[in-house]
Each structure stands twice: as C-alpha cells, then as structure tokens.
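pipeline stage [seq->struct] | target=Glucose-1-phosphate adenylyltransferase | organism=Ruminococcus bromii | residues=403
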Amino acid sequence: MFPKKEVVAMLLAGGQGSRLGVLTRKLAKPAVPFGGKYRIIDFPLSNCVNSGIDAVGILTQYQPLVLNEYIGNGQPWDLDSMHSGVNCLSPYQAVDGADWYSGTANAIYQNINYIERYNPEYVVILSGDHIYKMDYNKMLDYHKEKNAACTIAVIDVPLEEASRFGILNTNEDGSIYEFEEKPAHPKSTNASMGIYIFSWKELRKYLTEDELKEGSSHDFGKDVLPAMLDAGERMFAYPFEGYWKDVGTIDSLWEANMDLLDPKVTLDLKDIYSRNPMMPPHYVSNEASIQNSLVADGCNVYGSLEFSILFAGVTIGKNATINSSIIMPGAVIEDGADVQFAIIAENTVVGKNAKVGQKPEETENLDDWGITVVGANTVIKENTVIKAKTMIDSDTEVDGNEK
C-alpha cells in the first residue's frame, strides 16, 4: 500500500540525443557529464527534491546502463525512502504485447500504473536534458490558482531566436490560445521549456484517448496538448525568470559549461546534488597555471588551464595547455599537448605534443570553426593535429597522419 501523494514527477530521460554526436553514442543524454561534478539529470532531480517532490519516475530507453547505475537507489538526492523515492521505468512486455516508447505521451501512458499507485492530484512532466533551477511548488500554486488542466512553463526568448522553439501564444491572463511549433514568423516570444503540470484526471483521459487514436505520434507537443486546447481545457503559461539552457547540441552543451565560469551568469549550484566519486583532493603543482577554471577532485594539474572545466580524475601534463575546453572524467592530457575549444570525453588520452581544436582566430574562415569533440576511451597519439569542428568517434586510435 503506497501513501497518497499530491504530486508525482515523471522525468523523460529516454531520448537518443543524436545531436550530441559521439558523446551519446553509448550514453543516454541525461547521463552526459556537466559542470565538473554533475550529470545533466542532476538538475531536474535536485529541483524535485528541493520542491518537496519525493515520488519520481525516470523513463529510460536509449543506452540506459550508465544512467541507471548513476541513479542507483536515489540516495544522493535523498530519494531512497521505502514507499516513494526514484524509480527507473523502462519499456516492458505487457499481456497485450510489448513496444518501445513511441513518443513522450506514450511513455507516460505505459506507466499509468506507476502513477496511480500514489493516487496523485497532479503530475509534473519534466525533461532530462535541461540545465536550470526551479521551484516547482511555485508553478503548482499558479496551476491551482488558475484552476488549470495543464500549465506549461515558458521563458522569454529574443524574437530573433523564437523560431527555434515551440511558441505559446497567450491572452492577457496567461491562458493559452495557440501553439506554434518553431514558427517562421512567431507571434510571441513565450518559448515552451518542456515543463508541464497536469491535473491527473484530465491527463489520464487525454493519454488514453491519444493511445487509441490512429495516426497519432503519441507526443505531448504534437498531439496531447493540441487535443486539450481544441477541447477547450483551461491551459496556462507559467512565466519563468532565471537561467535555463537546453543542452541538446554540442554548442549549447559547451556554452552552458562555459556559463559556469562567467560571473555575470546567476546559476547557483549549491543545492544541486550528485553522485560523487570517492577521490582524493585535486593536486596542482607549482609549475601549473590556472585561470578562471573549475577543477574537480582527483585531478593532477601540471600544465596551464584557462576558462576550462576539469572533471574528476583528470591529469594535465607538464607544459600542456588547455583553453576554453571541457575535459571529462578520467581523461589524460599528456605533456606538451594543446587543447583549444574542445570537449574531451571520458577516459580519453591526448598524447604528447598533440594539438586538438583551434581558436577562432586560427582558422582562415570562421565558417570552418567550431567546437572539436573527442569521444570516450579514445587515444590521440603523439604529435597528432586535429582541427576545429572535428568529431572523433569513441573507442578509436588517431595517429599523427590523421586530421
């Protein structure tokens, strides 16, 4: 017998994250390392805990091994109680057949039994690939005040960027009268953040109807939300002010990490929780130089860092130079190597005097410049030169003749 919960959170964490390229070849996007000691999923999980939501279902599908292992029993986020806590929910075989999650709405539909054992009044639907801090209680209060069937968090974006987002057009009272998916000529700058609060009775009804609807893609944005709007349900936009970043691309992931080094960015990490490796304090030799960088536990730094982030267990060799780069757990940058504007994934070795990535001013044409990415468990051999905007696959060896 499970105790009744006013709110249950469902965290969508099963996407492939193909736009992150080699970083998600064998890793679910929410499990991608971020900010020196975190993984992306730490942010919505911590937001749930800080909002008093202690029943969280995490819907996994693509490459779930590392993500499931990382979440474990939920103890780092205080989500390990007997009758609540966190549960990883993967697709499973039922009496009437089995299927992968075929869309965001179908993923929730397949887990109706999980939600109903808590008999909630409200369900919060979250994405596992956003960096932000948010008190969901304030959004829930807004939802109750408006007597809404659905409330969608929105953030104001510049008009010139609005066509990249799903846009919600609203009346003066915040009620939604129209959805526009990446409109060429947006009517407003209210961009959906992919954070929804539903009254459970209404959501259950529309999920069931959508599941039976032929031709549906079983997606919230394409199917369920428009159906609710067409039916005249009370739907409202909740304005959010604060830092929020969708880290679904290489550029946005790099930018969000670099934002942590910008004193003008107000993203306070003091109550974002994570599963930390048990490693000794980092060591910085007297030959090293560190400017405006983050260095995690277990690192050994003998070279030069500038505007960079080192995750746990990274080694930077003598006379190595790291600039505007992200070096993920366990990577080794050997003596004399030069890493510029790059993301080096876990357990990769960059050999002596190798050069990975370039500064923008080092390219002949700015169109040829971009972040260089090296996948996990890769060896870049001595003296190899890898230019800007290159993506090196995981589990490979790159010798001096390859660029």
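stage status: PASS
auto-comment: The helical segments are 42-50, 65-71, 104-109, 112-116, 136-145, 200-212, 220-230, 250-259. The first helix runs from residue 42 to 50.
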